Amino acid sequence: MHEVTDTMARKPRSQRFQPLQKLVDRKEETAAKQLGLARRKLAEAEQRLLELRRFREEYCRQLQQSGQQGLDGRRLQSFQQFLSQLDVAIGQQQAQIESCRLDCERETRHWESCHREQRILQKTVERFRSEEQRRTRRREQKLEDDQTTGRYARKRKGT
User: Fold this and answer.
1) How far apart are CA 91 and CA 99, in angstroms?
2) CA 26 vs CA 103, 117, 154: distances in Å
3) Does the pLDDT of residue 128 top 80, yes or no?
4) 109 confidence band (pLDDT: 50, 70, 90)
């Protein structure tokens, strides 16, 4: 147990956060895919509504044309019944669209939350890397200064 803890402690913080970063990245990616799926479902539902409305318009035109040519009561009743069924289908499709819109809004909020979390963690890891690089540069500079100072001191002793 101590060996794992000691190994983790030796790793720079930016590297210790990599597993968490990968997890958060996957979570954000999954949320983005879910949002895309919800948007596609909404677009498909809107397309179906357009098709139903176009079909209803065409059927109404046919009813008008048939009415001009003379239409018996039974056939008129059949047309009206079918129009009524189309109206019900249109209403159901509108409800489906509203449900899809709510799904899109929910998925958008979820993705935004995941994306925000991912950005915060990414900035934190970047800050850790910058700090690690700054410490490394200072350590290297100190080592170089110590070596230069040591050479100078040896040179003075030798003279």
Assistant:
1) 13
2) 21, 12, 57
3) yes
4) very high
Q: Find the largest Cα–Cα distance for the chain.
A: 127
What's the CA gap between 93 and 42, in Å, rounded?
A: 11
Q: Is 32 helix (H, G, I), strand (E, B) or coil?
A: helix
Q: Is 57 left (phi over 0), alpha (psi -120 to 50) or beta?
A: alpha
Please report how many Cα atoms fall inside a 13 Å half-sphere around the Cα of residue 49, on the Cβ side. Answer: 16
Domains in the chain: ranges and CATH: 18-148 (1.10.287.1700)
List pLDDT tens digits, range 43-78.
999 999 999 999 999 989 988 887 667 778 888 888
Integer Rg of the chain from CA: 35
